[in-house]
Amino acid sequence: MGAQVYGLTPEDLELQARARGFADELILHEQYAEEHGGELRPEVEKRLEARAVELGLTATNIPVELGGRGCSTLQQVLVQEQGGRVTNALAWCLTTPPGWWVPVANEHQRETYLIPTIEGRREGCYAITEEHAGSDVSDLKATATRQGDEYVLNGEKWHVTSFNKADHVFFQGVLTEGEHAGRQAMFVVDDDTPGIRVVRTPSYSHTFAHHHPILAFEDVRVPASQLIGSEADGMSFVYEWFRYERLMIAARCLGAAERLVDEMQAFAAQRRVGPEFLADKQLVQGMLADSLTELFAARAMTYEVARSLDGPSERADLKVAHAQCSMVKLYVSEMANRVADRAVQVFGGRGYMRENVAERFYRELRVERIWEGASEIQRAIIADQLRKRGRAALV
Ligand SMILES: Cc1cc2nc3c(=O)[nH]c(=O)nc-3n(C[C@H](O)[C@H](O)[C@H](O)COP(=O)(O)OP(=O)(O)OC[C@H]3O[C@@H](n4cnc5c(N)ncnc54)[C@H](O)[C@@H]3O)c2cc1C
Q: Is the CB of residue 206 below 6 angstroms from any atom belonging to ligand 1?
């Protein structure tokens, strides 16, 4: 009945069930991960990674011709939503290789990096943010200078997620000379290229095996074949990535909120305080009702935007899609944080213990309101498009 509300096809439902079953397997490892700095035993990690591939849950965003699953946007959302039910980033084994790279990768990049990443044999990470350029990525100070058949890269990058797990990094820098001087270009760089140095690896709120170090690029030399697309393309890749990832963040936040509602409800139904169960107390019922209602609204809008992205491409308006992905990311990430806050409250003292799922989500979901464009930036994008295009174009 619930699934019919969202108009999912039998194929969608089968994929969703497969992803859900795998997420349930991952959930069994959360406690261990939390107690071991986010790490699983290497053989367990390898087994789960292999299982994600075997179940057809990786590279959902990549065309079948390249070895991906060729899923619709809605199906990608369904898979990531199930992954979102799992804490400690254990579901990051549901990898989504960089889809924006597919049309612009040269043959060397396709064979050396992209295809192996799709097959689960390589992993990349992003070095875009800097100490003084986060929300405003147009203000980067890192540079790329052409010297003969090479580029020389310099700069310091912050929060480079997964550098400790990855073997190559996407570096974004400002061109210092030539026809496109002042524009941003993106490069793929092997992690072990001389001149790349980990400045430090700060601790973050969550307990993830994937770290976010600060990296220095000091006269890092790469062949010109490592430039992605043409010199002036850097920002367009970032925008395409944002559109995609903001929707997938929303999908994962839906999964988190669903799990929290389920866990809250189960706890409230069996926890007796005085003569009554928590679920009988109207103030607790209010928290459950608000959480469920917001989850319903959030899911409806996320699926709607995913479906519109799957619609005929000639009708697609990129700016409208961008603004709608911003609305989804803004609303769903904020919704999930409200649900996590209520869940901690419903669990009481238990909700403050790291062994409790509500406590872990309470920490982990906070970053969803910050990365890939903080909530304020999403609001600025939405308001800008409302002013330029009017309400009817957007909603
Ligand atoms: C765990 C984690 C992982 C990350 N992973 C990566 C990664 O892999 N690669 C990468 O390149 N980056 C990564 N980031 C960086 C992330 O994208 C940035 O932190 C984010 O874009 C915000 O930038 P900032 O931290 O510099 O904040 P700032 O830009 O300094 O903003 C600070 C605050 O001011 C607000 N603000 C800024 N501008 C405005 C405005 N115009 N109006 C109103 N309010 C405004 C922001 O919303 C924010 O609340 C990661 C960050 C974290 C925390």
A: no
